[in-house]
Amino acid sequence: MTDENASVDPRFERVAIIGLGLIGGSLGHAIKRGKLAAHVAGYARSAETRARALEIGFVDSAHETAADAVKNADLVVICTPVGALGPVAAEIEPHLKRGAILTDVGSVKMAVVRDIGPYVPEGVHFIPGHPIAGTEQSGPDSGFAELFDGRWCILTPGPGADRDAVAKLAAFWQACGSKVDYMEPKHHDLVLAIVSHLPHLIAYNIVGTADDLETVTESEVIKYSAGGFRDFTRLASSDPTMWRDICLNNKDAILEMLGRFSEDLSAMQRMIRWGDGEGLFNLFTRTRAVRRSIIEAGQDTAAPNFGRTPAQKK
Ligand SMILES: NC(=O)c1ccc[n+]([C@@H]2O[C@H](COP(=O)([O-])OP(=O)(O)OC[C@H]3O[C@@H](n4cnc5c(N)ncnc54)[C@H](O)[C@@H]3O)[C@@H](O)[C@H]2O)c1
Ligand SMILES: O=C(O)C(=O)C[C@]1(C(=O)O)C=C[C@@H](O)C=C1
C-alpha cells in the first residue's frame, strides 16, 4: 500500500459484483483472501453460473437480477463485457445506495464514461477502473485470488470525483494486490490500444491467416506450434465477446495504432525485399532493448503462465 492510502480502510460492508467471470470471480476470490467485505453479493445471468459461484465460494449470495444484487451495497463493481455496461447501469440506477462507490473493470474507459455516466444518481461516486491483469480464460471457474497481485489497476476518476471515495477505492485495489495509477480516460484508451488491444488484434490476425492456409499447413500448424505461433494462439483464444466490444468501443485509438503498425510493417517488408540487413538488425536490436527494460522494471508479468494457479498452467 502506498503511504498516501496507508491510513485508508480498504474494507467495505457489502460489495456487489455484477458479472461472475474471470475478473468478477478473481475479484471475489481476492476479497475473500483479504477479508475485504462482510458480504459479497453476485449477479450472473445464468442460473448455472450463479450456482457455480456460490459453490466455489467467491460470493456469499447470488441474485437473479443486477438490481437485487446492488441493494445496500457500499461498493458495486460491474464486471461484464464493455458492451453490456450501459444496460446494466440503467437497470441498477434506481437501486444504488446513496454514498456507494460505483466502478467497473472494463478494458476501455471513454466509452464507459459515456455509457455509465448518464445513469449515476446524485450521491453515488462513479470511479471507472481497469485492472491490467487477465488471462485468455473466461467464466466463473477461471478466476483466482492472485490475478491482481503486483499488477497495475488504472483508475480514471472524473474532475469532480470525491477524493475520499477515490482513496477508498484505491486502497481496496491495493488490498486486492494491485498497484494503483490514475489516468484521463482518453489517455488510458490510447495507451491500452498499443500495449493490449493491438497485440490481441495481431494475434487474432496471425492465427486467422494460418487457419486460412489450412489445406496446405493444417498438420504443420498443429505439429510445430510449440514456438512463437503457440504464444499467439493463447492471445487469439481470448473471449470473442470481450474483444468485439473492445474493438467497437475503442475504435479511434485502435485505428490510429493499426495505421502506424501497417506503416511499420510496410517498412519492414521493404527492408526484406531490398535486402536491408542493417535496417533489420537495427530494428531488432531496438526492440530487444524494450524487452530488457520491461524485465528490469519488474514488469515481466506477461509471460504465458504468469500469475496462474498450477492447474491453469498448460
Ligand atoms: N479477461 C481479461 O483479461 C480482462 C482483463 C481486464 C479487464 N477485463 C474486462 O473485464 C470485463 C469482464 O471480462 P471477463 O474476462 O471477466 O469476462 P468473462 O466472460 O469471464 O465474464 C463476463 C461476465 O459477464 C456476464 N455477461 C456477459 N454479457 C452480459 C450482459 N449482457 N449482461 C449481464 N451480464 C453479462 C457473463 O455471463 C459473465 O458472467 C470486460 O469488460 C473486460 O473488458 C478483462
Ligand atoms: O494476459 C492476458 O491474457 C491478457 O490478455 C490480459 C490483458 C492484457 O492485454 O494485458 C487483456 C485485456 C485487459 O484489459 C487487461 C489485460
CATH homologous superfamily identity of the largest domain = NAD(P)-binding Rossmann-like Domain
Mean pLDDT: 92
SSE run = EHEHEHEHEHEEEHEHHHHHH
Given helix and strand content, the structural type is alpha/beta
Q: In angstroms, what is the radius of gyration?
A: 21 Å
Hetero ligands: nicotinamide-adenine-dinucleotide, prephenic acid
Strand order of the largest sheet: 3-2-1-4-5-6
Question: If you consult CATH, what is the topology of the largest domain?
Answer: Rossmann fold
Poorly predicted regions are 302-314
State the domain count.
2
CATH structural architecture of the largest domain:
3-Layer(aba) Sandwich
CATH class of the largest domain: Alpha Beta
Cα distance spanning the termini = 32 Å
State the helix count.
12
Secondary structure tally: strands:
9
> DSSP strand (E) fraction?
5-15%
For the report, how would you describe the main beta sheet? 6 strands, parallel
EC number: 1.3.1.12
Catalytic activity: prephenate + NAD(+) = 3-(4-hydroxyphenyl)pyruvate + CO2 + NADH
Enzyme class: oxidoreductase
Pfam family, one: PDH_N
